Amino acid sequence: MVDLVNKENESNIRKMGGISQEEDVFAPVRKSVRNRWAWLAINLCTAFIASRVIGLFEGTISQIVALATLMPIIAGIGGNTGNQTITMIVRALALHQVEPGNFSFLFKREIGVALINGLFWGGIMGAITWLMYSNMALGGVMMLAMVLNLLLAAIMGVMVPLVMTKMKRDPAVGSSVLITAITDTGGFFIFLGLATLFLLPH
Predict the structure, then answer these.
(1) In this structure, are residues 184 and 130 in contact, taking their beta carbons and an 8 Å threshold?
(2) DSSP 200
(3) E strand segments, 28-104
(4) 125 is in which domain, residue-wise?
């Protein structure tokens, strides 16, 4: 039984990263390359979209250079939160713990967790940003952006595997790639949008 659970966990980890189940560390190079192409192509496309979102705010970044140093923090914590949520939901689906009757509970629970984490860690990073750049408004934008991106990550972390299941697709396949793309793009848009709205003169 333990071996079966370990095998299932290993399978889900591979799938979430977009790695074919039959691939191992000793697989031929050509086979490994072919197995990973599809999700690498998807990742490249989503990275391009994220870069275009950043491009929309070139004027803002040129006026507030500190934004460029803070953007990876917003994207990183959003991606981490999303992957934590997806891992939990995929495991719950595999164990048949998720039913239509508890969808609402799942959403409320994950939103609550994300809100608390966002306020706590966002508050810490907001204070650090304020001290680093002597700019209280920038610290406030940092905090708000982290809260909103963690909420986005939690919502999508629940939605992605549930929607994939509804579409008769394996929710473990490539879900990590998708959630990272969503939180990167969404995080950049939220952070730079808030900075444009609250930090630039109008």
Answers:
(1) no
(2) S
(3) none
(4) 2-199
Q: What is the rounded CA–CA span in Å between residue 146 and residue 73?
A: 9
Element (H, E) at 21: none
Compute the distance between CA of residue 196 and CA of residue 201 in angstroms, rounded to an integer.
9
Nearest CA to 180 out of 79, 93, 86 is that of: 79
**2 confidence band (pLDDT: 50, 70, 90):** very low
Cβ atoms 5, 164 nearer than 8 A: no
Q: Say which CATH number the domain at 44 has.
A: 1.10.357.20
User: What pTM did the predictor assign?
Assistant: 0.83
Show the beta-strand stretches assigned E in the chain: none
Looking at residue 102, what DSSP letter applies?
Answer: G
Residues with Cβ < 8 Å from 141, sequence gap 6 or more? 191, 194, 195, 198, 199
CA–CA separation, 25 and 22 (whole Å): 10
Q: Which pair of structure tokens corresponds to residue 8?
A: 């299932």
Q: What is the pLDDT of residues 4-39, one digit of tens each?
A: 344 444 454 445 544 555 555 667 777 777 777 877
User: Which helix H or strand E contains 107, and what residues bound it?
Assistant: helix 103-133
What are the CA-CA distances from residue 199 to residues 94, 192, 194 (Å)? 46, 10, 8
Number of domains in the chain: 1
